[in-house]
Each structure stands twice: as structure tokens, then as C-alpha cells.
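Hi Y.,

Following your request, here is the sequence exactly as I used it, all 201 residues.
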Amino acid sequence: MTITTLFLDIGGVLLTNGWDSHARRRAAEKFGLEGSEMDERHHLTFDTYEEGKLTLDEYLARVIFYEPREFTPQDFREFMLTQSQPFEETIAFLREIKQRHGLKVVAVSNEGRELTEYRIRTFGLGSLFDAFISSCFVHFRKPDHDIYRMALDVVQAAPDDVLYIDDRAMFVEVARSLGIHGVQYTELEAVRQALATYGLV
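Below is the corresponding structure, written out as C-alpha cells. Let me know if you'd prefer a different format.
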């Protein structure tokens, strides 16, 4: 068994999560929003945004701007984008592993289009990844089996040739159910040790 391909999540592995509960809490504090109401509206519509069926402006209209505010959608969008921060050491490590072993590297990620495109552009992810199987582009979300199958088809890899790294245990388990090797990301050192068992370190 030789690993030829890495499937990587982005949020929680390479970067902070783009718009998680912590970021929403910070937004509620900054903009004086009722956090519970914001969260309820978020959960009712965010999956649709991540599947690429809503624009960011449409998502914000449902969750934030359903009533007059003292700040603009542009103010809020800019705040959202600044929540993304890189895990520099992890990115550098995975770039080095890719180059050393000639691996194909594919993003398998749940994220809305505007956040995805911002994160790719801002953090230079286009030079790490060979393809982006992002929920907003393919209209499937993890843990749907079809997003993993599409990633396999796009890079023409057999499941046994692929190692998948994600911070969510369930998503790793689903990938394993399809025959893909999986590692849950908790910290970089644990990933180094896991990759060593596959001869990649």
C-alpha cells in the first residue's frame, strides 16, 4: 500500500474555521447582536450557503440584515473574512510532504463560496492543492459519501491510495467506510506520527 494522494480539510487543519461558533460569538459582541437569535437563524440556513445555493449576501440577509442595522453588510463581511487565520507550521509541513513524495493534494471541505475563494487567495492555497472539492463548488457537504467519491473520481485515485486528514472524527470515520485511510487532526505532532506510519515522514 502506497499513499499517492492526500485529501485535506481546510478549516481546523490548515486554517482556523471560517465561521464557527467562536467567530459568531465575537461578531455578536462586536456588532451588538443577540447571539441566540443569530445562531438559530444561522443553523437554519448555513448548510444551504455551504452547498453553494446561497450567496454570502443572501446568507447575511437571512441571518443578520432581516431588520435595520447600524452597520453595513460590507462591515460585517470584512469582519467575517478577518476571522480566518493560518496554521503556518502545518501548511509548511504539508507542502514539504507533497514535494518530497510527489503527492496529489486535494481539498475536501465544507465552506461557502466567498469564504473559500478569500481563503484560497489570501493564504496561497492554490499552490498547495491540485483540486478543490469544496461543498460550495460541488453542492455536496460532508459527511455525504458523494463528496468523497467525487474527490476520488476527479483525481482518479483508488480509496486505498488516499490518506484523508480532518479535525472532525465523524468525517474521518465516513471516509474510512469508503476504504480511504483517515487521520483525525488534533495537533501537528500527532499528524507527523500518523504520516510516519504510512512512510510519509
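The mean pLDDT is 97.

Thanks again,
Q.
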